[in-house]
Amino acid sequence: MKGFVEEFKAFAMKGNVIDLAVAVVIGAAFGKIVSSLVDNIITPLIGLLMGGVNFSGLSYSVGEAVVTYGMFIQAIIDFVIVALVIFMVIKAISRLQRQQAEDPAENTPAEPSEEVQLLREIRDGLRRR
What we know:
By secondary structure, the chain is mostly helical. It has helices at 2-12, 15-49, 69-102, 104-107, 114-128, and strands spanning 60-62, 65-67. The protein starts with a helix and ends with a helix.
């Protein structure tokens, strides 16, 4: 049992697991932001464009069972909207990262200070001896 605990501790403390945990937490928070954007801003605007169509009330009764297929259709529409919003956000982030990588002014390293140059000369001189 002690070996199992040590092995689990080594696994849990690896950088990838911690990075994954951070990604899950940030993803959950980002999911709330996207859901709020879709539920409170985008879906009402699309509802206005579609004439206020809401499929969630559609249903079909079979005996005493009620099949609410409208809720399923509405869930599909909501999924497509959320996926589209996430795609647009990720595309914008990728574009910003590409622009930042292409900007040569930010990527060129600054000239080292005189002190650093002097220290490098001293280091190089000591290596030759």
